[in-house]
Amino acid sequence: MTETRTTCPYCGVGCGVVASVVDGAVSVRGDSEHPANVGRLCVKGAALSETAGLEGRLLHPSVDGQQANWERALDVAGERLRAIINEHGPQAVAFYASGQLLTEDYYAANKLMKGFIGAANIDTNSRLCMSSAVTGYKRAWGADVVPCSYEDVERSDLVVLVGSNAAWAHPVLYQRLVQAKQQNPQMKVVVIDPRRTATCDIADRHLAIAPGTDAGLFVGLLRAIAERGAKLDDFTDAPAALEAAQPWNVARVAAFCGLPLAEVAAFYQDFIAAPRAITLYTMGINQSSSGSDKCNAIINVHLASGKFGREGCGPFSLTGQPNAMGGREVGGLATMLAAHMNFEPADLARVARFWGTERLAQTPGLMAVDLFAAIGRGEVKAVWIMGTNPAVSLPDSHAVSQALKRCELVIVSEISSHTETSRYAHIRFPALGWGEKNGTVTNSERRISRQRAFLPAPGEARADWWIIARVAQRLGYGEAFAWQHPHEVFSEHAALSGFENEGQRAFDISGLAELSREAWDDLAPVRWPVSRHAHTLDLKRGWRADARVRMVPVSPRGMQAQTQALYPLILNSGRIRDQWHTMTRTGSVPKLMQHISQPIVEVAPQDAQHFGLQHGGLSRISSLHGVMVAKVVVTDSQRRGSLFTPMHWNDCFARQGKVNGLVAPVVDPHSGQPESKQTAVRIAPWQPAWQGELYSRDEVPLAGHVTWWRKAATGLHHLTLCSDRLIEQDILVWCQQHGWQVQVANAGDLWHLLAWQGEQLMLGFWSSHRLPEVDDSLVCRAFSEAPQTLADRHALLSGQDLARPAVGKIVCSCFSIGEKTILDAIEKQGCRTAGELGERLKCGTNCGSCVPELKALLASTTIKVTVL
Ligand SMILES: Nc1nc2c(c(=O)[nH]1)N[C@H]1C(S)=C(S)[C@@H](COP(=O)(O)OP(=O)(O)OC[C@H]3O[C@@H](n4cnc5c(=O)[nH]c(N)nc54)[C@H](O)[C@@H]3O)O[C@H]1N2
Ligand SMILES: Nc1nc2c(c(=O)[nH]1)N[C@H]1C(S)=C(S)[C@@H](COP(=O)(O)OP(=O)(O)OC[C@H]3O[C@@H](n4cnc5c(=O)[nH]c(N)nc54)[C@H](O)[C@@H]3O)O[C@H]1N2
Ligand code: SF4
Ligand SMILES: [Mo]
Question: 867: buried, middle or exposed (CB in 10 Å: 19+, 13-18, 0-12)?
């Protein structure tokens, strides 16, 4: 058995994975030698083997909906791009790339667009994710330097998590923090989030801040630090930053942020007193119409208190995607040039020299939201989308879809055969996916790791860099794209980082430029800089002419979203534990669908009462831009006036489940990042006439009035359905048209149907005025092994396995342990701690991500006991 060391393709923690294939079956475990995870994996990483199959993969190129061979697909792409460039100029074409591409792919895309097509219209999904953080670092240090490591998190005295649900979004880093806190009881953890999230499980303090107001909190902290005397002479603009902070006393902050004054004061006291403090921030900060100012407000407090550039300290933006950092390094944003260089005369001349081009773009290109608006207006006539699904992830997704529909040429490089974006593609290129592709990624702490191939290329799929290089050839730039192997692309990228760089540029991996193919293959994870001149990252200086670090003056602003009588609530959106973005990979793994299996909306109890919402019932949420349907979860972890819904569901997995249909395309003026976390909405209960579960071997055509959610089921279509109009007759007729034998149970509002072809179960449908409880494992078993006796068939018609108790909603995905089983263990078997539950049921003992939920269940039952 050969084992391959590679890197997880999901989040920016960048865990090392050891993968092997035995008899065609992939298995994975955490790499104990990788410094990011030292052997751990979270539930998504551990389920990687279940996404390695070829079901749903895009395996062949196609042109205008027809399968084509590579020669033709590449020729057509080249011809059509060339024609548009010739007629309308290079500004009429654009690339939209992704933090999930490898560095080599990204480098190739950036070089082709900026260097040879000659426009800078290459932007990426990192615009929706990291661009405020990039702007923050660049404004402070003059370079996009992330100044911290995971060890700094472990070695701090105060860890502040702001706008970050790391327990679910960066699980392995969170587990490292949990462990560090256990080992150092002096360590304090503060979580700042309008919601009480799973991350609050280890928090000493949770500040349930009003949405969008974090800048006020940090500007007030700057004032408090300065009041106690701070040495600020080293920083440019420090007086202006202090002046801007002057009005922000604790009382004003408390009022602005909707927090108790004592809580704010205590947080300031903790921060000032802590010898070492580190602030981890992610989307609750970045995805804001003033996200870059918020980043600088955070950076400022670390500068002013001297809590940066040393162990356990600093403003640490956690990157979301596996290679968001690599994309930033190659310059894959429309506002950067290459290798951390900018659109400035000296940089432009240098990059043109290095690439040997006379066509280099001279000015920044369009940022994501503007780019799709320009496509909508017909100004950009061709777009090549690689490794991202903008029809789902961009705000105002309806307008994005309309823009793509009207666009003259849409090229999509994908691994998945069905995505919302691909529906609009004229040309589709099948890309290699995780386990097949070969290259490098950089994680949140600037650590470059190898992703290595251990599976053969499926079908006709090819590496993204290869596809880009071949199109470059068709456009007449073959010489500059003549690489034969990703190692050559990497070497060129590394050489550019060191080209005419005598320490003026922070990003320098020139020490890796001369690696042999073997040495690159074996490259161990390493943090940059890796300079051939042995340059290190001195954070006391800035990478600009005066070599100083800047404190950006920040005047806190609230969100742009405005509540009003018609739209009185603020809708927040983000991640759930077991799904990845637009679900193209995790949405088909049954195990990962168990935890939360349909769009939900979390509502505070007072709001639920006010708007007439029932826990477990359905609701319609609408904004000025669109509407979605979600199942109501009433919880006191939600702040009054705010709702929360997952970002993941989309038209491939639900009808009306896509949150970005509601979000306005409002962006930060400096970073261009959308305000994805705040949308003014209203919510109303929806009691459909009926709800049901449908399992079928073939896709059943459904009338437009039916709302549905797709569940993952191996080899089957499983949908949860509801509507105001009945569809029983439609299903019956459809089954009869196929000549299947139909068995129906009909009593009151309950309507159950089984359809058989001989001994084989073809379809099962269970409906009622409420969602019927159907035993999923019983039904799936019946599809693979049909019940033999008539009695068993009748039992199946009830949807319940009468011999086996139901386990309830799955809490621990690793071991499939359900809520009812856990409650039983607490109530009947006397388990009193998460540890005891783990000993009895194994739940929470693998990745640990469900421990906060186990504790919540323990707490809920304890309360019951004391009340009695
Ligand atoms: N399971 C899972 N993990 C992932 C991903 C995934 O899809 N699934 N995606 C990865 C990617 S690309 C990213 S970018 C990261 C994102 O990681 P996170 O940013 O941690 O995740 P989110 O859930 O988007 O948002 C974090 C929190 O911001 C809070 N928030 C909303 N508004 C505000 C506010 O005004 N102020 C404050 N302080 N907080 C606010 C939300 O309530 C939410 O709990 O996750 C990465 N990891
Ligand atoms: N409302 C709201 N919207 C959000 C967010 C939010 O919190 N709220 N978060 C935003 C953030 S932070 C992010 S990062 C984005 C993410 O949004 P997207 O980038 O749109 O989401 P993904 O599902 O990760 O899309 C990746 C696509 O690339 C494909 N793919 C996977 N591997 C490869 C490969 O090797 N090559 C190629 N060519 N394709 C591949 C996948 O099948 C998938 O279709 O969403 C953003 N949108
Ligand atoms: S923490 Fe992130 S990188 Fe690590 S296994 Fe989980 S998803 Fe993968
Ligand atoms: Mo992200």
Answer: exposed
